[in-house]
Amino acid sequence: MLELKRVKPLSESFLESIGFYWHNDNDNTPYVSDSLVVISQKEAQAYYEAANELYDMFVEGAQHVIDNNLFHELGIPFTLVELIKKSWENDVHWHLYGRFDLSGGIDGKPIKLIEFNADTPTALFETAIIQWAMLKANGMDEAKQFNNVLEALRENFKRLVVLHGDVADFSQYYDGWKILFSSIRGNIEEENTTKLLQNAANEAGFHTDFEYIDAVGFSPNEGIFKDEESFEYWFKLIPWEEIALQEGDLALILRDIVENQKAIILNPAYSLIFQSKAFMKILWDLYPRHPLLLETAFEPLVGKKYVEKRAFGREGANTIIRDEKDQIIASKIGDYEHFTPVYQEFVEFASDEAGDLYQAGVFFAYEACGLGFRKGGLILDNYAKFVGHIIS
Hints:
Elements: E1 4-6, H1 12-17, E2 32-39, H2 41-67, H3 81-89, E3 98-103, E4 112-117, H4 124-137, H5 149-162, H6 170-173, E5 178-182, H7 188-204, E6 207-210, E7 217-219, E8 223-226, E9 229-231, E10 233-236, H8 240-246, H9 248-259, E11 264-266, H10 271-275, H11 279-286, E12 296-297, E13 306-310, E14 319-322, E15 328-332, E16 341-345, E17 350-351, E18 357-364, E19 368-376, E20 385-391
Parallel strand pairs: 2-20, 5-6, 5-10, 10-11
Antiparallel strand pairs: 1-2, 3-4, 3-18, 7-8, 8-9, 12-16, 13-14, 13-16, 14-15, 17-18, 18-19, 19-20
């Protein structure tokens, strides 16, 4: 059983003063737990090393997908295939950040990959700021965390310019390029997460601005605009698969913008390869029985407990857990039934005395940079709680 440390929660007024307005769930219970997961320095290091190793595997796996034209297996819309290839071919399309969801790592359980939220990962604000503030507010040493998310993001923004070079050379190569940050109008969580990233880019040395996605201008030959001002980079907090399926014309325009080298989009289109849960099947084929992976297939697993989910499902929707006899243990309906089904070996999450289960989330920005936890039931849904951590 994992170890927890109770702390005094941050007040709602304080949370709102720093831009964190989604502090209560729809049932009016606090979204941020008043406990911290206690981990050792060795466990923190293991999370760091696991995420770094996994990212290298993802890069190899993505090259395999492109070389063998496996986009259909991943459920990737055909309208994005050429854009994905184009973004993969040129290093200027830099992957900014993502979040690995992992089981284990605490309570003596081995670390296993559940999936990689590589395009529009949630819990960035919570991981980077809220859990750090909880330590500080409770008189604890705020350095006692695996959490350098903001610093890592700042440095990775600089790599948009220096790429594989030294980030200290950023000012030498930076030529006034601008980043436009966008989120969907009316979603305060996504807007403030986007503005947190915008602030990191500002601190890195970029000129930036913000605009809601519905007010951004797009032209295949002119690029991406806010009013009359054009931008060399565009960060969008909207998943690529939603653009392809709900805004097909925009997907084609973005393809042409990238083809004509009029703008660079963050995260790049190839992050959709990483994002697809069907990619876990590709990894299992390339790295069978790897200690960080769970068996994954495109058909139900025989004779073992497994989880059925959809390639681009979110917040536990359209997830079914079945036992060794193929009987349903738990399920959650949703709106993602049309995506490719994926079948992954079931793994036990660490639990507390109340029976709540804990999944680790490790953010990655060039390297692993921050740890947080989600707490909930067998299927983690939009009522799962965020839980910070402290290194003992």
